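User: Structure with NDP, tokens only please.
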Amino acid sequence: MKILLFGKDGQVGWELQRALLPIGEVLSVGRRGAAIMADFSNPDSVRKIIHDVNPDIIANAAAYTAVDMAEDDGDNALKINAVAPAIMAKEAKKRGALLLHYSTEYVFDGSGQQPWLETDRPAPLNVYGASKLEGEREIAQSGCNHLIFRTSWVYAARGKNFLKTMVKLIGDRDELNVVSDQIGAPTGAALLADISAHAIRATLEDNALCGLYHLTAAGETSWFEYASYIADQMKAALPNAKVAAIKPTLSSAYPQRAKRPSNSRMNTEKFKAKFKLNLPHWKIGVDQSLTEVLGQV
Ligand code: NDP
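Assistant:
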């Protein structure tokens, strides 16, 4: 089984390099320092690599994830989040390959308090969300065998994310204001990668499993509660270290270039039922990554 992985240096892509190995030979593509390189701002490079490799599985963990920057860089975000995935989908369809792709809860407008279902109507609030939604639609319309996992609040011990930013700020500052009116589930890149590998195996045996799924860790929290949890764990792990006091604030007091959804809750029942898998509580993965990150401090 030949697996072509795009986005090897991202949070999820890095973990996929490990998690996909038991399924087959993994050929990892990045923007630099890889044997095979592709920059999606030239989407034709994606087609060429797929031609050359002729994979059985295409895993796409690459994306334009700079949510605020995307507001002023829509064409590029669209190329990376929709045009390149559309090419992958067409190529997957041609050769009967399975395409694994990730999307986001930012396809929704964040209204209400209920966890979003796969059947709910998307209405992105920002350019990033719109470009990711377009990518999903291109893949679905291509008719290729695919798995699309919409996830949220991704973190890892490696890469740029809220968890690592908080560890740094909590150690540096006396006090920190963190938004308390956006609710979601922090989801570890390692969990996503491991679960994706399980799902690929199951889908190779049963094509009916192809489709769109919501996939996050279990439980819910606000950014404020999440930051407070990180601060508590830091206090316990490093009793003599300085730990900032965490204060709740409202999104309206913390304006950002791109609007964020308040309700990022995702209903994962479809995923759990179809793949017969459990999703662990978000604190389990956060604890593990914190141990790793604090070990590096
Ligand atoms: P990262 O931002 O960690 O990684 C994105 C990867 O995409 C990087 O390796 C980056 O390359 C690569 N990339 C960016 N631009 C290009 C380009 N022009 N050509 C080729 N590669 C490019 O993303 P995550 O691992 O966090 O995200 C994985 C998936 O999950 C994405 O589909 C994302 O939309 C989705 N998601 C992420 C969330 C999050 O909180 N991060 C939340 C919800 C969904 P380089 O390393 O060279 O910069």
